[in-house]
Amino acid sequence: MSTETTAGTEPAALVGRAGAPFPVRIEHGKVAEFARAVGLDPAELAGSDGEPVPPATFLTTARLWSGPANDPWTGAGRNRSRVLHGEQEFVFHGRCPRVGETLTATSRIESVFEKSGRRGGTLRFSVTVTEFRDAAGTLVAEARSTGIETSRAATG
Amino acid sequence: MSAPPSWNDLQVGAAPPAYVDGPMTLTDIVRYQGASGDLNPLHHDPGYAQAAGYSGPFAVGMRQAGVLAAQAGRWLGHANVRRFRVRFQEQAWPGDVLVYEMRVTGKREEGGERLVDLELTCTRQGGGVHLRGTATYAVPDRSGA
After folding, report:
1. Does B36 sit within 8 Å of A63, measured CB to CB?
2. Which residue intervals define the domain FAS1-like dehydratase in the entry (chain A) (predicted)?
3. Taking CA atoms, what residue in A is nearest to B35?
4. Minimal C-alpha gap between B72 and chain A (Å)
5. What is the pLDDT of residues A43-65, one digit of tens each?
6. Do B83 and A85 touch (CB under 8 A)?
7. Is 0.90 surpassed by the pTM of this model?
8. pLDDT at B145
9. Residue A94 belongs to domain with CATH number
10. In whole angstroms, what is the distance from residue B24 CA to residue B28 CA?
């Protein structure tokens, strides 16, 4: 596997990088499939409109609508096999996404910082935020992902 | 979905029964990977996982985060979630039985909403903590206040 990392890249050169906005359609079938994969019966999610309410971590499926042009890490020299998922947060501004709507998502690198690893070496932390806006441009939700880039594979 | 408890009735320390799930299978992992679109082979391809230095495929943390969110939503209402955050700790493996727990750590009013703060954990039965999280739900007060 490649040993390429972003370690030589100054954080200032990464922070603020953004991908192109992309549409995310909230679809009944995908919500039902995702619900089953996290142990729910889609029928128990039925909201007031009869459609299933997307579970709280559903927006992780936005990746299915995203391509290289939408990913702020494209061309940043980061090796995905060296990046562990450290933290994940979803924030909803007053309401959840609804089946049938199309949100516009934009991902950007929010922060990059380094810490010493317990077993030596440096760990590079990076926070990537994806904002989801509705048809009126109102911020509906944010997904914030913390990646931890290691200089070698972490052993389980 | 059944109605969530009323805000007034939820006290700090309140907790639903623990949800015990497993043993986790590779099929559970693959089903989640297909649903989420995260097809990282570290979680289902033994040769790839071993070449990367692991003993074999391991769980996708986001699946268990999703199960935790699903259980919190069952309790307080899926549409009531305002914030959900998890930190991934020790890895979980096929064969693990996972225990999902949560409890109320605070109640507050903000922006005209009655909010309940939770702490959440997913623990490997006989092992350590796999996920630790916090969440906030807006829970209506149905006592008429």
Report:
1. yes
2. 13-142
3. A34
4. 9
5. 999 888 889 999 999 999 999 99
6. no
7. yes
8. 45
9. 3.10.129.10
10. 6
